[in-house]
Specification:
One of its GO terms (cellular component) is axonemal dynein complex. InterPro entries: DHC (IPR026983), Dynein_heavy_tail (IPR013594). This is DYH8 protein. One of its GO terms (molecular function) is dynein intermediate chain binding. It is a single chain. The protein is an all-alpha fold. The chain has one domain. It is built from 7 helices and no strands. Helix 1 packs parallel to helix 4 and helix 2 packs antiparallel against helix 4.
Length: 167
């Protein structure tokens, strides 16, 4: 009877975790003119969410329940282990992406300043993006790179518009 109750609890957790994973994979809705700092903020938020979820999964309370279910040879554990692995991967991806995107953070300020001086920062910015593409195990996809370049371009356009309107 205890095993059945705990299996119900784990099934509820499984459903909730699957929902978090599904939502995290959905396409983001962003304004057309959003800059590259939004990319960093997105991954920081995602890192926080998945790290909290991972902390909860690794808590002693959850470990005790899983141990009881292991002793009772519960069939729900296979799904649980798969989800645990998926959450770990998502948390690692977010953490890694934040680390790499922080290397671009020093360019976001000059990129946002209303001055055509941004041109002097472009070669270093592009080199840093290339480094991320070549070394990041998660962020080096065409989807991520396209999104990042789009946001960088948006920021450059906004900066130029602001400069022209002030001048």
């Amino acid at each position: 009877e205890l095993i059945e109750k705990l299996e119900e609890v784990v099934m509820i957790w499984t459903k909730q975790i699957r929902q978090v994973l599904v939502e995290s994979e959905q396409i983001r809705r962003e304004a057309d003119d959003v800059g590259p700092s939004a990319e960093l903020e997105h991954w920081k938020s995602r890192m926080s969410s998945f790290s909290s979820l991972l902390d909860e999964i690794k808590s002693s309370r959850v470990k005790k329940i899983i141990s009881i279910l292991q002793a009772g040879r519960s069939k729900t554990l296979k799904q649980w282990k798969e989800l645990d692995g998926s959450i770990t991967i998502a948390a690692n991806e977010a953490k890694d992406n934040v680390r790499y995107l922080y290397t671009l953070d020093k360019f976001f300020g000059p990129l946002a300043n209303a001055s055509p001086v941004i041109m002097e920062h472009i070669p270093s910015l592009i080199n840093t993006v290339c480094m991320i593409y070549c070394t990041s195990p998660y962020y080096n996809t065409s989807e991520h790179m396209t999104s990042l370049f789009l946001k960088i371009t948006n920021q450059m356009i906004n900066t130029c518009k602001t400069y022209l309107c002030e001048g």
